[in-house]
Task: structure prediction
Amino acid sequence: MPRCTTLIAEDEPLARESLAEWVQALPQLELVACCADGDSALQALRALRPALVLLDIQMPGQTGLQVLRALAADGLPLPAVVFTTAYDAHALTAFELHAVDYLLKPFSQERFNDAVAHALATRREGDAAGADETDDAGAPVLPALEAAQRAAEAGPLTRVLVREHGRIVPLHVDAIEHLRSDTKYTALTSRGRSYLVRLPITSFEARLDPQRFLKVNRSCIVNLDFVEAMTPDESSQFVVLLRDGTRVTASRDVSKQLRAQAL
Result:
């Protein structure tokens, strides 16, 4: 199997040098370019069409997200993308853009190797399934219209990237029991664990299946699949009891809606 052509886009010199050393240490990768800003990264991606790109999100010029969207708009083949960033606020967007992995700085060489292995395995699976056409460099081809729609449409949310033991892992939305939020953060609870995401609850509200998820008040959304019962309190507001023992009081408006919908 030919080596996977790889491009690095990273504005921090030391981080860029480390990534280059790690790429060159892996025999299955071939480093074709290192870029220090978004504009030069986009130019190199258009010219070299690598199969894999290690893409920083916050860079001078265009951001990594803007670079990827520009490629999609060009109708050019999209490489497998591993995002690298010091911030996890973009994790949701990165996953929507079908990033293979999301490395949160600082990350170790071992974590980097895991991400590369995942990227190569994903590429092999795509080749075997014949799901995507490929160009001469082996990069998956994604039509520009489809790529633009995937990046821009706010369709139903199926997964959320969360941090667990220093890694970013996908959490299936169906497994989320409830979401509770303040103005900047949202805690996602699943199987007895809570994952803090640096996004407001409004980022999730319109993306969740309304047949399954109910916003009971301004700061809480519950998954009805995990609701044990709803009982009115002395003020006729429903208290929602979840299977994990969590109790949440629904707002007056939501309580009225629940009462009207009850058969």
